[in-house]
Structure formats: structure tokens, C-alpha cells
Amino acid sequence: QLQLAESGGGLVQPGGSLRLSCAGSGHTLDSYIVGWYRQTPGKEREEISSINFSGTCTLYAKSVKGRFTISRDNAKNTVDLQMNNLTPEDSAVYYCGADWDPKMIATARPAYWGQGIQVTVSP
């Protein structure tokens, strides 16, 4: 059974950067497509980025394109999200999710979820 754990969140000032990491355990992560999602109170969880098995194909939501970069290191069993030029609107709980089916990733229904990590962007 795959387990996911996010790390790297916290408080950052507007314009700053954070790097989130999603670590897999219990199974090799290279068997899964991995997505990053975020959620704010009262809103649905939204996909912001995803990466395919080999890391050769990446997708980004319009709201983060050009500022966020997703990458994976299958040898380390991790998928990272580099977040630059952060704004207060990026404040949310960030989750990583993994599934074999891209439709599940795209519709925020992956088989496996991490526990989530808070990112707060504030002066």
C-alpha cells in the first residue's frame, strides 16, 4: 500500500519561494502519476499540477503556470513542487495524490492522498 507524505510547507512572504516535497513509501512512486492539489476553506480541492510516470510530461493550472515547477526523482521516490513568486492567493493546504489513471488525477480523485501541508503567504 502506497503512503504519501508532504513536507516543506510553512509561512512565506509575498514574492517568496517554497519547495514542497511528496515522499512515497510502501511502494515505488514511479508506478504512479502524481498530482499536487490545494484547498482553501469552503472550496473544493483543485489540481494545480501533475507529472507522468517518467517525468516527461507535466501539466499546470493557469493560476500557477510560469511560477510553479513540478519534478520527480524516482530514485528518491519523491515528487517536488517548486513554488516561486508566491502571492497571498496561493495560501492553502497543499496535498499530493497518486494514481495509475490520469482521469483520477485530473478529477481530484486519486487512489492515494498525503495528509496535506499548510502554505501561508503573508507579509
Please sum up the structure shown.
The protein has one helix at residues 102-106; strands spanning 3-7, 10-12, 18-25, 33-39, 46-51, 58-60, 68-73, 78-83, 92-99, 112-113, 117-121. The chain has 123 residues and is mainly β.
Helix and strand run: EEEEEEEEEHEE
Enumerate the spans where pLDDT stays under 50 for 5 or more consecutive residues. none
- Helices, by number, come to 1
**What Rg is obtained from the alpha carbons, in whole angstroms?**
13 Å
Portion of residues within helices: under 10%
Note the overall shape: globular
Number of strands: 11
Strand content: over 45%
Termini gap? 40 Å
Whole-number mean pLDDT = 97
Major beta-sheet overview: 7 strands, mixed
SS-based class:
mainly beta
Describe what you observe in this structure.
The structure is a single chain. The protein is mostly beta strands. Helices cover 4% and strands 48% of the residues. The chain has 1 helix and 11 strands, in the order βββββββββαββ. It has one helix at 102-106, and strands at residues 3-7, 10-12, 18-25, 33-39, 46-51, 58-60, 68-73, 78-83, 92-99, 112-113, 117-121. Strands 2, 4, 5, 6, 9, 10 and 11 form a 7-stranded mixed sheet that branches. β4 and β5 (46-51) form a beta hairpin. The longest helix is centred in the last third of the chain and has 5 residues, at 102-106. The chain is globular. The model has no long low-confidence stretch (mean pLDDT 97).
